[in-house]
Structures are given as C-alpha cells and as structure tokens.
From TrEMBL, chain A:
Source organism per UniProt: Imhoffiella purpurea
GO CC, alphabetical: plasma membrane
Topology relative to the membrane: Multi-pass membrane protein
Claim: Transmembrane is one of the keywords in the record: yes
Boundaries of every ABC transmembrane type-1 domain copy: 85-309
Function in brief: Part of the binding-protein-dependent transport system for phosphate; probably responsible for the translocation of the substrate across the membrane.
Stated name of the protein: Phosphate transport system permease protein
UniProtKB/TrEMBL annotation, chain B:
Subunit structure: The complex is composed of two ATP-binding proteins (PstB), two transmembrane proteins (PstC and PstA) and a solute-binding protein (PstS).
Signal peptide location: 1-22
GO MF annotation terms: phosphate ion binding
Annotated function: Part of the ABC transporter complex PstSACB involved in phosphate import.
InterPro entries, A to Z: ABC_phos-bd_PstS, PBP_domain, Phosphate-bind_PstS
SUPFAM superfamilies for the chain: Periplasmic binding protein-like II
Record bears the keyword Oxidoreductase: no
Family: Belongs to the PstS family.
A GO BP entry: phosphate ion transmembrane transport
Native organism: Imhoffiella purpurea
Name of the protein this chain belongs to: Phosphate-binding protein PstS
Length: 324, 354
C-alpha cells in the first residue's frame, strides 16, 4: 500500500499536463467507441435493407392483404400471416402477464429485506441460471412434463366453464397454454434480474424516509418503492416481451402449429418466429420472399413494442421520479 | 424405460431439426472402413427407415463404397436432384412432366421404383386402443376438417362396438413438401368429388384446414399424434408401427374394410394394369377386393449418365442388390415388396444407366 503511494507520488506527473501518449490513447478510445456504436446502427440498417430487398416483390404483390390474410398456401401462392401475428401477440402477452407478475414479485422478495442478503444472492443466481437452459430442453420439458400436468386442469376448466371463450376448446396436447407457460418461464430471468437491479438502485434513504413517515412495510413497497423503480421495471417488461416475441424453438415444439385464430387458451396456434423457422429450409423463391415479408412484420411488431415501452417509461419517469 | 427411450429419441429428433434449421446437413451415413467412394442422396422420409437399413446391410456386402441419405422430404429430394447437389434423389411422387422438362439433357434421368408402401391413418383416442373403422366418405371428411368430434353420429355408426369419447378431432398433417401428402391427397380426390374443387386440393403441399396441426416429416406426424389426445394423422405404415400407434381400418373401393398389411398391400399393387416406359405408376384407388386403399411406389431419381463411371457402377450394384435381397428386408419392415414384373422393368431401367 505504502509503496504504491510512493510510486505515484514520485512520478511527478500527477498534476502535469496530459502527455502526447495520453492524448493519443484518449483519441483512440473515442474513435473505437464511436466506430462500434456506428457499426451497430449500420448493421441494423443493413439487416433491414437486406430483408426488405428480399421481401420487396412480396410486399408489392400482397401488400396489406398479407397482414390480414389467414391462409398460407404455397401451391396457390396465397400468403397471409394474421393467425401467426395473433398467435405471436397472444402467446407473448400471456407470457408477459405470468412472467411479469412472478418476475416483479421475485424482485421485491429478493430486494425488500424479506430474506437474508446472502440467500438472496443464491436465489438470484438460480433464477439467472434459467436463462442458460437451451430452449429445446424447455420444449421437451413442456411436451413430456407440462402438457400431461396441464391436461386434467384444462379438461375440468373446459367442462365446467366451456361457455367462457378462454376455455372454449379442450387441451388435446400442444397448444397456447403450455406454450405461454414455458414462454413465461423463459422470460422470467430477464424480468427478474433487471427488476432486481431497478430496486437496488433506489437509495436506502428513500425507504427509511417512507418508514419514518409511518408507512407499513407493504405501503412502503407498493406506494414508494415500486413507483420509484417503475422505469427500470418497465424496461424489464419490455425486454421480456421482446424476448417472448422472438422465441422460436420451444414454441415451434409446443404451440401446436395450426394456422387458426382462437381465443381459447387450449387451442393450437402458430407464431411468426416458428413459421419462419419451420418453413425456411424448404422454401422456394416465392415463399422465401413471403417469409422475408413475415420477418419484416415481426421486426415491425418488436419495434412498435419497444417504442410503446419507451413512451410509457418516459411517462412514469416524469410522474413518479420527478425528472424531466 | 419406454418413456426414457422416447425422450432420448425425441431429443435426437430435435437436435436433427435444429441442424436442419441451421442449414446443416444431418446426414445419416452407413459406416465403412474403406471410404474411397461416397454416394450422397436425399429425399423422401417415407422410405427413409428402409434405405437406412439397406445401407447398413449393404455395407457388409461392399465395403468400398459409402452411401448417405438425408430424409428431407420428397419436394426437397426432387429439388436437390435437379440442382445436382446429390448423386441421387428420392421421392414418393414420381417427377411430373414439368419437372422432367427441367432435367439437364446431358445428365438424363431414370426413375426407379425401389419399394412401395402404405399410407395409414394412425390415431390417438383415449379409451380406444384399437379397432377404429372409417368409411370412405368419413375419412375424407375428417381430413378436410368437416367432422368435429369423435363421437359424431357417422363415426359411431361405422363403429357400433366402440364407445367413443366426446373429444375434438385434431388432424395432424405435413407442413413440408411431401410425397406422402401427394399420395394421400391424390387418393382422397378420387373418393371425394369436393376434395379438389373446394377442399384442400392435390399436391405435395396443400391447403389444410386452419385447425390442422402442421408438422415436419413422417416422424414428426407420428410423434405429434402420439402426444395429442384426439389426434389423427397420415404417415407411412412403418412410422406408425415404430411408435405402436393404433391404425384405422379403411374402406376400399370394393367396399370392404381393410387393415394395412403385406397381403392387402400386395393386393393393391397387383391391381395396376400397365406399367409405362418411365415406370411412373400411380394407384390412386386400387380396385381389388382385399386391396388396401392408399398405396404408392416410391422412386429413386438417378442420372442417366454419371460423370464418374465408378459411381454409376457402385449405384447400379447397390440398387440391383436392393431389388433382389433388399425386397425381403422391405417386407420385414412393413413395406410392400415390388411385384416381379415391376422388378424386371426396374432392372431394365437400371441397366440403361451409364
């Protein structure tokens, strides 16, 4: 310790002007950072341009009918992705609902002094490990474990509440419910980890102040901590939703791959990402164009979700955190 | 134990599917020590188990050549053959005239039927382990999505002995370009006048009703039927046997209810009258009293002239073996051995390859 101090002191440069080398390093670092940032934008633009170029003939030919059409018939050249758009949004929203509630609950549990700090770290690591499980494994787990588990409950719901659109059909095997549940588990680590960080960022004095004003623990959590962390929590939800929109393999295995639009939680459906993954290897020239168009639709949905998420985030920052 | 193996094979299937998605080539190849000559093929999944078995057996006969076969579906088989990216293609639907026109005249093409198979309707109805009988009109309507539940009055009528549950019918069909789909839609169009005009139509990929589950490959259909209550799907006989799925008994042209099997299959093949020069024979609705209604030959697509004479010789020797010894193996595995006159014609075609 002492040695270091002496070395620093004797070098004499502590108050001197920056050397030429330091100038150079600074410039170099700036230019690397700038290039990297610029490259990301170029890369996104290039991908968009490439997909758009491939999709152009399909966009010209099918136009908006592509988004509202419901059949995908290669031999007749009819392409429509409304069932897939519906399936993508429906499964992702369900997953966000389930995964979001659990993710935020976990974050509150881990950060608001419910358990010992060390134990919380262990919990957090375990949850983050969920993110490392390959999605094929989730798919297989869904097929062999989750679906048989869900069947009796689904049957009961359908039998006794069949008039309610959400339970309008029976769960015969793969379908929306197992897909959404697995998706919820897959986005859980994202939502939980980022929410935990959001809660950790709140200065401790905020909580002390709340308690000082005589709030109960739950009042402090729900009326002070949660609104204060809301922008971070929202960011977590938006990221989780984005992940759910793009998830492919597990969904292709679990959602049932049927091109229909149904409110029922137990019917098979399809998503854009699994349509892309499963049709690409076989596709001819015209189908590839249609698939590229479908990819653009998926990108557009993701983009809109991100923009909407940002807007809500700005709003909450202004409302709850008092910043501009 | 059964659970374990099915999990393991599902994992293997999923890994193979991943490889496909990533554009990889999950080739199944027979192993041989001396691997000088490699002959690559791709196509139909329908005869894939047989071809794999043939490659294993043939590796013992001739160790100097290694064959590989990728089950990518008939549509891709024809596509890759036309591109010249494989040495031979395989398809359950023989090449159409427009496809034949695309063949490079310098290469030429010979279509050789190697075996024939039955397309069966396998089902998964809890409480009905066997014995489902479906009349001609009924199974066409089921696949067209016109019958909603298993306890439908018409199904009950054909099956007075069965107690059928009130369970939604889920049809499982092929999403990829498939010769099996071609074979069954070609048959259904014969028995249902609406099939081609207002129904799904005939082809390797058709417009199935929206509620149908669309999956990849014969194996995919079999697995999906296995895990889905109330499911019914079409696949090659061999795949239903492998997973022990119950198979529906179908009504044939003569009005009899027939189970798939070696005898009913051969009866169906025997009903073909003439074999044309290009060996393209379809049996959309065989007439015999005991004939199983949905059968098809499955073809290998070979170049008329190979640039490498060694390759041509190796292929000719191996396929000649397939047409002789191979037929016994085919019968063991649930495929239909070729009728003698077809074997004669196939060997003639094989002889023309140089």
């Amino acid at each position: 310790m002492e040695k270091l101090f002496q070395a620093a002191n004797t070098s004499g440069s502590i108050s001197g002007p920056p050397s030429a080398r330091e100038y150079f390093n600074d410039r170099l670092f700036r230019s690397i950072a700038l290039t990297s940032a610029f490259l990301i934008i170029v890369l996104v633009a290039y991908i968009l341009w490439e997909i758009g170029r491939e999709a152009m003939p399909a966009i010209g030919e099918y136009g908006l009918g592509f988004v509202t059409g419901t059949t995908w018939n290669v031999s007749k050249g009819e392409f429509g992705v409304l069932p897939e758009i519906w399936g993508t949004l429906y499964s992702s929203l369900l997953a966000l609902l389930i995964g979001g509630v659990f993710g935020i609950a976990i974050a509150i549990f881990l950060t608001q002094d419910f358990i010992n700090h060390r134990l919380a770290t262990v919990f957090r690591t375990v949850i983050e490990m969920l993110a490392a499980i390959p999605s094929v494994v989730f798919g297989l787990w869904g097929i062999y474990v989750l679906i048989p588990l869900l069947k009796p409950g689904a049957e009961w719901l359908h039998d006794s509440l069949g008039w309610f659109p959400l339970f309008g059909t029976n769960l015969s095997g793969p379908g929306m419910a197992p897909a959404a549940l697995v998706l919820a588990i897959m986005i859980l680590p994202t939502v939980a980890a980022i929410s935990v960080d959001a809660f950790r960022r709140i200065p401790y004095k905020v909580k002390e102040a709340a308690y000082g004003m005589g709030t109960t623990r739950w009042e402090a959590i729900l009326k002070v901590m949660l609104p204060t962390a809301s922008s971070g929590v929202l960011a977590a939800l938006v990221l989780g939703f984005g992940r759910a929109l793009g998830e492919t393999m597990a969904l292709a295995m679990l959602i049932g791959n049927a091109n229909q639009i149904s409110l029922s939680l137990f019917s098979p459906a399809n998503t854009l990402a699994s349509l892309l993954a499963s049709n690409f290897p076989e596709a001819g020239r015209i189908e590839v164009q249609a698939l590229m168009y479908a990819a653009l639709v998926l990108l557009a949905i993701t983009f809109l979700v991100n923009v909407a998420g940002l807007a809500v985030q700005q709003y909450t920052i202004r409302k709850f955190e008092g910043k501009k | 134990m059964k659970y374990k193996t099915s999990l393991a094979s599902a994992l293997a299937a999923a890994v193979a599917a991943l490889g496909l998605l990533a554009g990889g080539q999950p080739a199944i190849s027979a192993t041989a020590e001396a691997t000088e000559l490699v002959v690559r093929g791709a196509g139909a999944t329908f005869p894939q188990p047989l071809y794999q078995r043939w490659m294993q057996e043939y590796a013992k006969v001739d160790t100097g050549v290694r064959f590989s076969y990728e089950g990518v579906g008939s549509g891709s088989g024809v596509k890759r053959f036309l591109e010249g990216s494989v040495d031979f293609g395989a398809s359950d639907a023989a090449m159409s005239d427009s496809e034949l026109a695309k063949v490079d005249p310098k290469r030429g093409v010979e279509m050789i039927p190697m075996t024939a198979g039955m397309v069966v309707l396998a089902y998964n109805i809890p409480g009905v382990p066997e014995g489902l009988r479906l009349s001609r009109a009924l199974y066409a309507d089921i696949l067209a999505g016109k019958v909603g539940f298993w306890d439908d009055a018409r199904i009950q009528e054909s099956n007075p002995d069965l107690t059928l549950p009130h369970l939604a019918i889920v049809t499982v069909v092929r999403r990829d370009s498939s010769g099996t789909t071609y074979v069954i839609t070609n048959h259904l169009a014969r028995i249902d006048p609406d099939w081609e005009t207002s129904g799904p139509g005939i082809g390797k990929r058709v417009d199935w009703p929206g509620s149908a589950m669309e999956v990849q490959g014969n194996e995919g259909v079999a697995r999906r039927v296995q895990i889905t209550d109330g499911a019914i799907g079409y696949m090659a006989y061999e795949f239903a046997k492998q997973l022990d799925l119950p198979i529906a008994t179908l009504q044939n042209k003569a009005g009899n209810f027939v189970e798939p099997g070696p005898l009913t299959g051969q009866a169906a093949l025997a009903s073909a009258e003439e074999i044309p020069e290009n060996l393209r024979v379809y049996l959309p609705d065989p007439a015999g009293a005991d004939a199983y209604p949905i059968v098809s030959y499955t073809w290998l697509l070979l170049d008329g002239r190979y640039p490498d004479p060694a390759k041509a010789e190796a292929l000719k020797a191996a396929l000649g073996w397939g047409l002789d010894e191979g037929q016994t193996i085919a019968a063991e595995m649930g495929y239909i051995p070729l009728p003698d006159r077809m074997i004669g014609k196939a060997k003639e075609a094989l002889g023309r390859i140089r």
